[in-house]
Design brief:
Layout lengths: L2 E10 L2 E10 L2 E7 L2 E8 L4 H11 L8 E5 L2 E5 L8 E3 L5 E3 L14 H11 L2 H6 L3 E7 L2 E8 L2 H14 L7 E5 L5 H10 L3 E4 L5 H10 L2 E7 L2 E4 L7 H10 L2
Parallel strand pairs: 3-6, 11-12, 12-13
Antiparallel strand pairs: 1-2, 3-4, 5-6, 7-8, 9-10, 9-11, 13-14
Length: 249
């Protein structure tokens, strides 16, 4: 991930001073699926193999990826595509494949402490330096598997999903942690990837909550410090349900 130093004038109250800030670089990459141009993405130009593989999986274009080749900023993915492709613009300005996401079947559970551990892992050194990136993490079987940062929140999900897909990990045992808000398109990525639990430091939209409910995803928002809100499928957080039961008259 490329970071450059840029000059600026910082104003604080009635004072002003020259500063030099670390600034994240945004690039444009192109995705090709089975030899055909698919879409262009504004992204941070690192881990492009994971990005390409993850986009295809999390947009529901294929269940697996056979190969990824990166040439400069062009990403060539070979995968058994399973449907016609129609793209639309997402709320972030990125591309989203039109269609209903898949449903998730998983018996995994998580504790309140586990949710806090996922949340704590989301913050990154790059974010602390620049304040300009989103981050996603993937926990599988209780362990942190990978962390990805990018200028686009969607891309961070694609990168961690792609990392899992290219290494043959069972995504139904995983928990996705994100810095970004959770509209329908973000939740759909987790659904298509088969990830049953999503934890975000940010808010969810009504569409995101409805998508999670239909897809069988446990969606958790506003996870900060000791606080979080479970919006859907709370049965995967049994210790919280037990607390709620005890608190009821």
């Amino acid at each position: 991930m490329e970071i450059v130093c840029r000059a600026g004038i910082q104003v604080a109250g009635e004072s002003a001073r020259e500063v030099h800030d670390d600034i994240i670089v945004e690039d444009r990459v192109r995705l090709f699926l089975n030899g055909e141009f698919l879409t262009a993405l504004v992204a941070s130009a690192d881990r492009l193999d994971d990005l390409g593989a993850g986009f295809v999986i999390s947009e529901g274009l294929a269940d697996r990826v056979e190969s990824v080749e990166v040439s400069g900023k062009d990403i060539h993915i070979t995968a058994p595509a399973k449907k016609e492709i129609q793209l639309e613009t997402e709320s972030s300005g990125g591309s989203r494949v039109v269609g209903e996401p898949g449903s998730v079947a998983s018996s995994i559970t998580v504790t309140a402490a586990g949710i806090r551990a996922v949340t704590a892992a989301i913050e990154s050194d790059v974010w602390r330096r620049t304040g300009a990136v989103h981050c996603s993490v993937l926990f599988c079987d209780g362990e942190l598997i990978t962390r990805a940062c990018d200028v686009g929140r969607h891309n961070t999900v694609d990168k961690v999903v792609g990392h899992a897909a290219l290494r043959g990990l069972d995504r139904s045992t995983c928990i996705l942690g994100c810095t970004g808000r959770q509209p329908a398109g973000m939740v759909a990525k987790a659904a298509n990837a088969g990830i049953p639990i999503v934890v975000s430091r940010a808010a969810s939209t009504d569409g995101g909550i409805l998508t999670a409910e239909r897809a069988g995803i446990t969606l958790i928002g506003f996870s900060r410090g000791d606080r979080f809100t479970i919006y859907t499928h709370p049965e995967r957080v049994p210790d919280v349900l037990e607390r709620l039961k005890k608190a009821q008259p």
